[in-house]
Amino acid sequence: MNIVVTGASKGLGLAIADKFADDRQGHTLLLCARNEQRLHLATTYMQARYPRARILARACDMSKKEAVLQFADWILHKVDKTDIVVNNAGQFVPGSVHNEPDGALEQMINTNLYSAYHLTRALLPGMMAAKEGHIFNMCSIASLQAYPNGGAYSISKFALMGFSKNLREELKQYNIKVTAVYPGATMTDSWSGSGVDPQRIMKVSDVANMIYTASFLSPQACVEEILLRPQLGDL
Ligand SMILES: NC(=O)c1ccc[n+]([C@@H]2O[C@H](COP(=O)([O-])OP(=O)(O)OC[C@H]3O[C@@H](n4cnc5c(N)ncnc54)[C@H](OP(=O)(O)O)[C@@H]3O)[C@@H](O)[C@H]2O)c1
Questions:
Q1: Pocket around ligand 1: residues whose beta carbon is below 6 Å from it?
Q2: pLDDT tens digits for 38-73?
């Protein structure tokens, strides 16, 4: 299979890419992140560990429409079709509507919503023609409920959930599955410096394992939502 994962140089995206790369079937992974050096390091290490996989990577700022479209073109030149798209790239900036900096919402919407919207639209024609595929959208529990310091981030994640739900309805008839993923707190760089005990929150592999499993069900079954929380609940 050909599997696209955005924001794959660390955190959840890297864990998801790693999980598919580890598959004995030997998939092709098409990955991106902004920082080329870190992306190169991550993918070189992954390729060395999983020689069956074919790992391709390209730097891309998914908050910029032109860059997203170039990334999509690159994907379509590398592979004849995309089987799985994981719209994971995203950024968490805490804030409150009343006092977050001007432009915070634009930044969060560009990074957390338009990234997924533009990439999906560019890849969909091929998937619709093939009448198969699976799109995962990395939402958050911040898509489901408001919480202190949610601000523009939470608004953008609510919007991503709306995108995912609409896509699910549209794509049923094309045999393309859509899954909204709602993780609670998961140990990544997003939590670095927070002082949170890593044992209190989830591991990236918890989320990666669920996505991997959801992608191998029978064609007639679609996991519409994956909602995961730390065992002791939200922080
Ligand atoms: N960790 C959690 O608790 C949690 C919970 C719920 C949902 N999520 C969601 O899960 C996703 C991944 O979060 P994470 O915690 O794994 O974050 P992370 O550790 O900070 O990793 C983010 C990844 O995305 C890339 N990225 C960030 N902005 C990008 C952009 N504009 N274009 C392309 N790549 C970009 C980063 O690389 P570069 O910086 O080099 O671009 C990195 O590879 C996000 O959508 C986040 O909202 C996380």
A1: 6-13, 32-35, 38, 60-63, 88-92, 111, 138, 140, 183, 185-186, 188-190
A2: 999 999 999 999 999 999 999 999 999 999 999 999
